[in-house]
TrEMBL record:
SUPFAM superfamilies associated with the record: 4Fe-4S ferredoxins
Required cofactor names: [4Fe-4S] cluster
Keywords (A to Z) from UniProt: 4Fe-4S, Electron transport, Iron, Iron-sulfur, Metal-binding, Transport
Protein name: Ferredoxin
InterPro entries in UniProt: 4Fe4S_Fe-S-bd, 4Fe4S_Fe_S_CS
Domain 4Fe-4S ferredoxin-type span(s) in chain numbering: 1-30
Keyword S-adenosyl-L-methionine on entry: no
Any GO MF annotation of the entry: metal ion binding
Length: 64
């Protein structure tokens, strides 16, 4: 399973893109998106998902 970004809540700050250890987050069009083929949910690298931990808006990076 992968994480997704709730577009309506995203402030487009970009913090998540730089913290993602699997480089699964990219800016596409006018929004940040998480590529489910690359998202590892930070398993094996971190205890918590880095996108969710750095996002300034709670519950914007959530399980898909």
């Amino acid at each position: 399973m992968a994480f997704k970004i709730v577009v309506s809540q995203c402030t487009q700050c970009g913090a998540c893109e730089f913290e993602c250890p699997s480089s699964a987050i990219k800016f596409k069009g006018e929004n940040y998106v998480i590529d489910p083929a690359h998202c590892t949910e930070c398993e094996g690298a971190f205890e918590t998902q880095q996108c969710a931990s750095v996002c300034p808006v709670p519950k914007t990076c959530v399980p898909a």
